[in-house]
Amino acid sequence: MFDYAARQRRLYERMEAEGVSALFLGPSADLEYLAGVQRGIPHFGEASYQHGWVNGGFFAPGKDPVFIFPRMFDAFDLPKRPEGEVVIVNETDDGLAMFEKVARSFAGDGTFAVGDRVWAETTINIGRIVGLEKMRIGSALVNHLRRVKTQEELDAMARAIETVDKAIAAVAPKVQPGVSMAELAEEIEHQMRRAGSRTPSFPTHIFTGFEEGALDNHVKETAWTPITEGTSVMFDFGGVVDGYCSDFGRTVYCGEPPADLVEAYEVMLAAQEAGGRAAVPGAIARDVNAACRKPIEDAGYGEWFRHRMGHGIGMDVHERPFISDEDETVLEAGMTFTNEPSIMIPNRWSIRIEDIYVCEEGGARNLNATDRGLVANKA
Questions:
Q1: What is the pLDDT along the chain (379 residues), one digit of tens a residue?
Q2: Are residues 179 and 327 in the same domain?
Q3: Do 124 and 244 reside in the same domain of the chain?
Q4: Which residue intervals of the chain are DSSP H helices?
Q5: DSSP symbols for 283-315
């Protein structure tokens, strides 16, 4: 489905340009992007194997990649081996010696880069082998390749987006008096799974606000509290298909929404539209964030938009660049990011919306199909 060899060639061009001799990546979106080594579904706690720290792949210009896996990872967590040499470390093997042999074969005159998601034990051992002074952080090398999506990647993201569009269509009508945040979250995840999602791309969040006493599926005390008419319920969830993520949000009002909420919702939609219009190739990320914030600030709601406009998204649900105050990245056509303005007034009401956009000439394009209007389930 994806051309891993072409991705590796682009990586090697960047490594040569930056004087990087070798790159080691552990299981991560970066390794999956470059070689198709599928990540496990996140879980509470960590699966642990003997020699688990060796797990990953070595990349260098002019060489075929070499992957080194603990036997248990290879046997149980690797649906398909990647293209290239694969070294298996058995439980009784000298894992350090085997890892050092491969690492030394990749070390050159330049720096030795290590991915951000590599275990500390791995990083320390690489430092002992090649010298700490020769090491640098390596994930930025791959992030720059991952920022601009190919059509194949956009197609995969569209499949992930379809799972959330289908889920909200099934669950929004269930926002009725008596339902709880926990029940809505369970139903959202069930519907995403039915629509083809492998796993939630992050912990599903259904909530009414952040103030004390707000209903929230993450808060034990209120997760199962039934809602009453006159409750604004916010959805924040995403799915995963073919390794690519979606991230989505809507507001569903239980009952007849008050006039001031309806008015603010239109302001929030205007903010999302302004952010999309500003996100053209050549725009600065922080300027796009400012464009999104302006309608909300002009309407007097600025202090209640406490979030950024959004973040890059792809194989990770949060990727750089961020569409926020501090990020000076120049946007390029094909970059994908969330556009998620919100207005949350404690002890009054809260509203949010979130879609995925792709940067294009003339303004970013919304990839979601769900209507953006406020949903109100009236008695």
A1: 899 999 999 999 999 999 999 999 999 999 999 999 999 887 677 778 999 999 999 999 999 999 999 999 999 999 999 999 999 999 999 999 999 999 999 999 999 999 998 999 999 999 999 999 999 999 999 999 999 999 999 999 999 999 999 999 999 999 999 999 999 999 999 999 999 999 999 999 999 999 999 999 999 999 999 999 999 999 999 999 999 999 999 999 999 999 999 999 999 999 999 999 999 999 999 999 999 999 999 999 999 999 999 999 999 999 999 999 999 999 999 999 999 999 999 999 999 999 999 999 999 999 999 999 999 998 7
A2: yes
A3: no
A4: 4-18, 29-35, 71-76, 95-106, 120-130, 139-146, 151-171, 181-194, 259-278, 285-298
A5: -BHHHHHHHHHHHHHHTT-GGG--S-SEEE-SS
CB 340 within 8 A of CB 309: yes
Contacts of residue 179, Cβ cutoff 8 Å, sequence gap at least 6: 226, 227
The answer to whether residues 309 and 284 touch, using CB atoms and an 8 Å cutoff, is no
Query: What global pTM score does this model have?
Result: 0.95
Range of the domain at 8: 4-146
Same domain, 77 and 11: yes
